[in-house]
Amino acid sequence: MQLPETQVAVLRAADAQSQRDVTDIASEVGEQPQAVARAAFELEERGLVDLGERTEAEVTLTGEGEDYAADGLPELALYEAALAAGAAEEPVSLGRLIGEAGLDGDAVDIALANFARKGYGTVDSGDVTVDADADLESDAELQALETLAAGDAVDDEAVLDQLDRRGLIDRDERTVRSVTLTGDGVTALMEGVEAAETVDRLTPELLTSGEWETVEFTDYNVEADADDIEPGRKHALREMADRVKDVLVGMGFQEMQGPTVDADFWIHDCLFMPQDHPARTHWDRFAIENPGKIDDVPDDIVDRVKTAHSDGVGEDGEGYHSPWDEDFARQLALRGHTTSLTARHLAGEALGDLEPPQRFFSVEKAYRNDELDATHLLEFFQIEGWVMAEELSVRDLMGTFTEFYEQFGITDLEFKPTYNPYTEPSFELFGRHPETGELIEIGNSGIFRPEMLEPLEVDCDVMAWGLALERLMMLATGAEDIRDVHGTLVDLEYLRTEEVIY
Ligand SMILES: N[C@@H](Cc1ccccc1)C(=O)O
């Protein structure tokens, strides 16, 4: 019988009496485990071997686990320092021992917690006493770490659980495949098998020699095992941002660009937000110290904004009747919303004067000194958008949101009237979380007031919104905590596997 070379090697290495692991055969015949697994699948299809499969626990050291395996556990360092300092006879101050044991940062707390847990001694109002008889040699956790570091297995479940709790190991399962010869396999071997002239791998040599054109290739087996490849890829949230941009472009919008650090003039004053408005402090802006201000705010717009703030607009307009300070408006900050870009565009500062109809958007970062929690980040992506037309109504606004969110499978939007100094009417937008069923706020919107539009010399209707990209991501993927989609706490496995396809 003629078989491809790897299959012949696997067949010869297999046994009729016992199962042999694919990995063992691979090292014996000097092949990659995947190549051996592929050959084993082929042989099984020919009825020459049986394949077995079992799962095995796999324990690997985390970075911290590796460090401790090499340098020892912090609680042992504390014990040794304490013993040397005479803490078996009388208490020694913790402060001194920390220095002598060379502990710092988190290691201090880790040492203390485990020192007490293991009964190596006691810590009482800052004084350490040790048990002189404690047997450090047999510290089961250190021994297990060293065993694992040497590549050997540890069976003690209780110790493994403890190491897991300490974050020193990762526990996983892996599939182990094994091969046994069938009766037909034995017969084939007895009758003689030889390597066929088939080729199971395209090599540079085959390509350069031109032989690839005449050799016979083995069949391609799509069921064979292969390693998961984890190449660098775009962050899932960035993919979502790209998707959002595609959808908005599809809806006829153009993308806006503009500064991340901007003058308060564009962030707040142009939006008819009074200079003493609580939002200007309660948003807790991230102010820029150097340079603290800009000087190129356009004089004519400054004058009109100032008048709107003090006297309002129109015949019987009402302003805020409070002082308006140009220097205050020139101060720089990280934008608290991307509506500063909208203000710049409406003012003609970005692309010159714009005639209706117009549709613009941006998906950019905004920064607020909020309390970090399950629905708030200090920096997040805002999906800003606005439509300029002769006449717009709330129906246009709602229709746009319905169309937009439908693209992400979100069809149960709710609107709640709210107040913004720059829009009237204004609506907060809510969506239902697919897992918790909770309504979460996903955006804020409205139709710009004349007090905002007139100073910018826009004399038609403009509706606008700011939506949170991360909240959209939560609704679309079911993530329950915003920190699971943006920031340093995002799970690596999530980033490797999340697919943003709608
Ligand atoms: N700037 C608002 C969103 C918004 C934009 C435009 C109009 C109305 C509301 C926010 O950050 O929440």
TrEMBL record:
This is Phenylalanine--tRNA ligase alpha subunit. Belongs to the class-II aminoacyl-tRNA synthetase family. Phe-tRNA synthetase alpha subunit type 2 subfamily. Mg(2+) binds at E424. Its EC number is 6.1.1.20. L-phenylalanine binds at T339, Q382, I383, E384, Y422, F448. Keywords: Aminoacyl-tRNA synthetase, ATP-binding, Cytoplasm, Ligase, Magnesium, Metal-binding, Nucleotide-binding, Protein biosynthesis. GO terms for molecular function: ATP binding; magnesium ion binding; phenylalanine-tRNA ligase activity; tRNA binding. GO terms for biological process: phenylalanyl-tRNA aminoacylation. It comes from the Archaea. Its main location: cytoplasm. The gene is pheS. Tetramer of two alpha and two beta subunits. Binds 2 magnesium ions per tetramer.
